[in-house]
Amino acid sequence: MAVDVHPAVRQRTARPLRAPRASLRLGRLAHLALILWAILVIVPMLWTFLASFKDTAEIFGPAWTLPARLRLDNWARAVDQAHIGTYLVNTVIVVLLSTAGTMVLGSMAAYVLARYPFRGSGAIYLLLVSGMAFPVYLALTPLFFVVKNTGSIPVIGPFIGLDTHGGLVLVYIAYSLPFTVFFLTAFFKTLPTSVAEAAFMDGASHSRIFFRVMLPMARPALTGITIFNVLGQWNQYQLPLVLLSGNARDKWVLTQGIADISTATGYSADWGALFAALSMSILPMLAVYIVFQRHIQAGMTEGALK
């Protein structure tokens, strides 16, 4: 026997079914947006790798035609004639030193600001974070003269002035600190205080707690922000262009070398070597991202899940 259900009851029982459908539609739209974004990123990279094995006529021909043969001489010219190998080594040295300095100073500052509130700590935090809102391009001229003047400091000046890797490393550290402090401060605030209190009860010092307890607990965030700093400093062009002049070509970084290939001979540039150099600059960062992809995602979500 059929039971007559009141319309209001049927409406209340039907409402919960709408939420999954809306979530499913939102999920599909998100997946569609991610697919479009992936296409916009992957297609230019694939075309760059493909063009690195073509000659000039093939590069300016139909875009997706395969090269008649794999012209490895493009890569050889990029290394031998354009000195991309030297610029690649310079970039690795500068990025390693600047990233290490950024993470050491940034993690220490963030830990103190997050776990040891003192008078003026809020003002210091806002001052550091405000650096994210200040375009570095507006400070290029003052920055040039500041680095130039540091070159006159006795003993250490020749190592941190213009046309030196030391000067570029210091600028990279200052450039990367605001976001590093902002990100790590928020993360250190989410860490439990009971572990640090237990370490204090056992007689551990502040520095030992920081290096032996807090840093291991903050490993996901440290890994994620390290990768972001490496990517940002690896792709930096404007700062090296200002601080490393043409008189110090042996100290140029990778972005300067790639730009030099395209501008050295005007419209008769060696396009095959140019795209080979671009491929050399992309592959290391692509490998780093693929290897540490899970760590980056964990660093972005760990603080929200605590």
Can you walk me through this structure?
This protein has helices at residues 7-14, 18-51, 56-59, 73-80, 84-115, 121-129, 140-150, 157-160, 165-190, 193-201, 206-217, 219-234, 238-243, 254-264, 271-291, 293-305. The protein is mainly alpha-helical. Helix 2 packs antiparallel against helix 15 (271-291), helix 4 packs across helix 15 (271-291) and helix 12 packs across helix 16. The longest helix has 34 residues, at 18-51.
Coarse shape: globular
Kindly estimate the percentage of residues that lie in beta strands according to DSSP.
under 5%
Q: Which structural class best describes the helix and strand composition?
A: mainly alpha
Helicity level, as a percent range?
over 70%
How many β strands by DSSP?
0
Overall pLDDT, averaged? Answer: 85
Span from first to last CA? Answer: 53 Å
Radius of gyration: 26 Å
Unreliable spans:
none
Number of discrete helical segments: 16
Keywords:
306 residues; mainly alpha; 73% helix; globular
SSE blueprint and pairings:
Elements: H1 7-14, H2 18-51, H3 56-59, H4 73-80, H5 84-115, H6 121-129, H7 140-150, H8 157-160, H9 165-190, H10 193-201, H11 206-217, H12 219-234, H13 238-243, H14 254-264, H15 271-291, H16 293-305
Helix pairs in contact: 2-15, 4-15, 5-9, 5-12, 5-14, 9-12, 10-11, 12-16, 14-15
Gist?
The protein is mainly alpha-helical and 306 residues long. Helices cover 73% and strands 0% of the residues.
